[in-house]
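Reopening this one. Same input as before:
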Amino acid sequence: MPAKGTVKFGGETMRFSGEQSFACLDYGRGIWPRDCVWNWGSASGKQNGRTLGLNLGGQWTDGTGYTENGICLDGYLSKISETLQWDYDKNHFKRPWRISAPSGAVDLTFTPFMERVAASDLWLVKSEVHQMFGHYNGTVSTVDGEVIPVQNLLGWAEDHVAKW
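Same output, byte for byte:
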């Protein structure tokens, strides 16, 4: 979603507006299984003069018949109902990741340039997330079959393991 506004951090105020300012809404279902793993990737920006947003997920919905995968192109959502394949090295998260759909509706390489790790272990409750920031390259397709080239689209991808 295009976004504008301000963020205050310490004594500094940062303003966001213009063609390269976007926001993503993280809306969780609220009831999580005790042991949970997931992948989540998101990116937004201009591609060949068009506004493109990606929401890509995996693992926690695998086998349920549901996905949280979609492409938003110029304000129109294309649902990706397939389970995505996430291929990446869990020993070296900064290596390129490959995210794909069996139909070819998603065929992306995500190349990280920064890693954020957050981990906690409170015995009964544990969480470890590797949130990578980088660029997406490849193609995505709308439900109408339009193939959209993706070049250096800024976003993130994460690997999260949790016990609630």
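So the earlier flakiness isn't reproducible anymore. For the record, The two ends are 30 Å apart (CA to CA).
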